């Protein structure tokens, strides 16, 4: 049809065609620009959450950087970590200062404490790095223990603290260093529930009541930030990664300490239940919990260790607790009593029933005590939750009769299943809410050839494409209609003018 038109008409029509195409291009570029725009705390102007609508499953779609090949956090396999004797102990400057107050803010995603520029890391990184802020990641009350972002040997800890620093030898601020090679560094501290409250951590907990809602801020302190870090700063894992929240910018040097820091049960409970992710005037309030990102693929990256790791000794370094864990499993003690022991060959805690023999010290009252005593860094025994939703229901080896909740990948629902009271796998939850919190985003699933549940099929991208194509078609049809309507009007006008110009005068002669 276009070939039959005059040249001038073709030019006009092509210009009209450009208008809808430009509009569609602008609509496509706008969200990418929003995703790229970020503040120095690593948040993005695009709407995102860790769970539910806008949850982390959708991040790579809405924020492309979150689908990069060097993302954080990761699972650290201590057996595969490369020992690097050139890694020096982390040396801090100014972290021991007892500052009068620190500014703390609830930004809707975490609790952030701003640190003064007088704090820095002088040794252990390629250059001196100045501290900017620290923030926390934790789990949810209705979930089993877990809330850290990094896992060690597939074990998740109760919470995790990040101290964000920037390369102050090359850049003037976090914003300038963001995305630059070796621009940012993060100290990752794995937090674990202990028997006592942590004095410095309590200062943060005390301030939570003043920042219950998003965008609220308060002053906390005084306390030594150094006391929130492990005593031994010479034993750590090192790898190259990214920010763990949008915009997920890569080029971040990660240091994850091998030693945990203990906080109190009530202190962790205050984080899980005390603050909201919504603002005070919002009609619908949402609790700020489970704000951790699941582990990402390591791909071709390597993890280095500043110390020599060992798979033979699973006990906590520097204590006498290593000896019981190396002893063989013996079913000694009162007959019929259920206990837990460490299986050194498999590297896991397993249940057993006592048979009345003598026994030994490799005997613990429950899986938590066994795991904390024998697994690296005192980790608790829970499988990696990123894989949990893909596992089949497992009742476990014991003899109790109870029920738990698991995610059925075949229909996308959280369902009950019979549970024996011990063992099983990570696809086991105490409540439907806990199951939905982690696996609910996978409600739309595809089945692969081996009948395993694959990643969720996001419908949002297909709907958006259909809408754009529909709009483009509608604008095109409208453009043709307007063009041919105007052409017809011009022809009618020209015909009228020609008729008026050549109409003959009356043939009657004047007498």
Give a description of the structure.
This protein is α+β, with helices and mostly antiparallel strands and 511 residues long. Among the domains are: 56-305, Roll (Carbonic Anhydrase II); 322-374, Pancreatic trypsin inhibitor Kunitz domain (Factor Xa Inhibitor, Irregular). 25% of the residues lie in helices and 20% in strands. The protein has ten helices and 20 strands. Strand 4 and strand 5 form a beta hairpin. Residues 22-45, 311-322, 377-387, 441-463 and 505-511 have low confidence and may be disordered. Reversible hydration of carbon dioxide. Residues 46-307 form the Alpha-carbonic anhydrase domain.
Features:
single chain, 511 residues, alpha+beta, Carbonic Anhydrase II, three-stranded mixed sheet, globular, disordered C terminus
CATH class group of one domain: Alpha Beta
Helix content: 10-25%
Count of alpha and pi helical runs: 10
Which fold does the CATH topology of one domain refer to?
Carbonic Anhydrase II
pLDDT < 50 stretches: 22-45, 311-322, 377-387, 441-463, 505-511
Shape: globular
Q: What is the β-strand count?
A: 20
CATH level-4 homologous superfamily of one domain? Alpha carbonic anhydrase
**What class, by secondary structure content?**
alpha+beta
Radius of gyration: 31 Å
Report the end-to-end length measured between terminal Cα atoms.
58 Å
Average pLDDT taken over every residue: 77
Share of residues in strands: 15-25%
Query: Could you say what the CATH architecture of one domain is?
Result: Roll
Name the helix and strand elements from N-terminus to C-terminus, one letter apiece: HHEEEEEEEEEEHEHEEEEHEHEEHHEEHH
The major β-sheet equals: 13 strands, mixed
Organism: Petromyzon marinus (Sea lamprey)
GO cellular component, one term: plasma membrane
Cofactor: Zn(2+)
Family: Belongs to the alpha-carbonic anhydrase family.
């Amino acid at each position: 049809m276009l070939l039959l038109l005059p040249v001038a008409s073709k030019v006009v029509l092509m210009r009209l065609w450009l208008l809808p195409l430009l509009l569609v291009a602008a609509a496509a570029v706008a969200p990418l620009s929003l995703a790229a725009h970020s503040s120095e705390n690593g948040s993005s102007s695009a709407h995102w959450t860790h769970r539910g609508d806008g949850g982390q499953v959708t991040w790579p779609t809405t924020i492309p950087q979150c689908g990069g090949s060097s993302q954080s956090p990761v699972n650290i396999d201590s057996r595969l970590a490369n020992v690097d004797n050139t890694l020096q102990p982390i040396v801090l400057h100014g972290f021991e200062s007892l500052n009068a107050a620190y500014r703390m803010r609830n930004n809707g995603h975490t609790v952030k404490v701003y640190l003064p520029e007088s704090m820095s890391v002088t040794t252990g990184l390629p250059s001196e790095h100045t501290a900017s802020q620290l923030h926390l990641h934790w789990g949810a009350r209705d979930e089993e223990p877990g809330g850290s972002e990094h896992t060690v040997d597939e074990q998740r800890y109760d919470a995790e603290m990040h101290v964000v620093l920037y390369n102050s030898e090359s850049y003037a601020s976090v914003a300038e260093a963001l995305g630059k090679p070796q621009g940012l560094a993060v100290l990752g501290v794995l937090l674990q529930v202990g028997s006592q409250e942590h004095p410095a951590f309590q200062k943060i907990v005390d301030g939570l009541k003043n920042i219950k809602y998003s965008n609220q801020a308060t002053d906390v302190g005084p306390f030594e930030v150094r006391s929130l870090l492990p005593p031994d700063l010479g034993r750590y894992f090192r790898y190259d990664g990214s920010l763990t929240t949008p915009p997920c910018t890569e080029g971040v040097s990660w240091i994850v300490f091998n030693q945990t820091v203990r906080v109190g049960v009530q202190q962790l409970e205050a984080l899980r239940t005390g603050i909201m992710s919504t603002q005070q005037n919002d009609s619908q309030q949402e609790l700020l919990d489970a704000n951790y990102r699941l582990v990402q693929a390591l791909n071709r990256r390597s993890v280095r260790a500043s110390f020599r790791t060992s798979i033979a000794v699973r006990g906590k370094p520097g204590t006498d607790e290593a000896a019981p864990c190396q002893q063989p499993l013996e079913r000694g003690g009162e007959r019929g009593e259920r206990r837990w022991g460490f299986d050194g060959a498999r590297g896991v805690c397993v249940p057993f029933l006592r048979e009345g023999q003598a026994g030994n010290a490799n005997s613990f009252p429950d899986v938590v005590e066994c795991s904390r005593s024998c697994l690296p860094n005192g980790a608790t025994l829970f499988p990696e939750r990123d894989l949990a939703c893909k596992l089949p229901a497992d009742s476990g080896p014991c003899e109790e009769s109870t029920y738990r909740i698991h995610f059925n990948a075949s229909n996308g629902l959280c369902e009950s299943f019979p549970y024996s009271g011990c063992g099983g796998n990570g696809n086991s939850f105490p409540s439907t809410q806990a199951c939905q919190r982690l696996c609910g985003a996978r409600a739309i699933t595809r089945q692969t050839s081996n009948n395993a549940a694959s990643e969720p099929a996001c419908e949002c991208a297909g709907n958006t494409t259909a809408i754009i194509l529909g709009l483009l078609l509608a604008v095109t049809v409208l453009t043709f209609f307007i063009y041919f309507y105007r052409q017809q009007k011009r022809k009618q006008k020209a015909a009228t003018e020609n008729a008026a110009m050549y109409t003959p005068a009356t043939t009657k002669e004047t007498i």
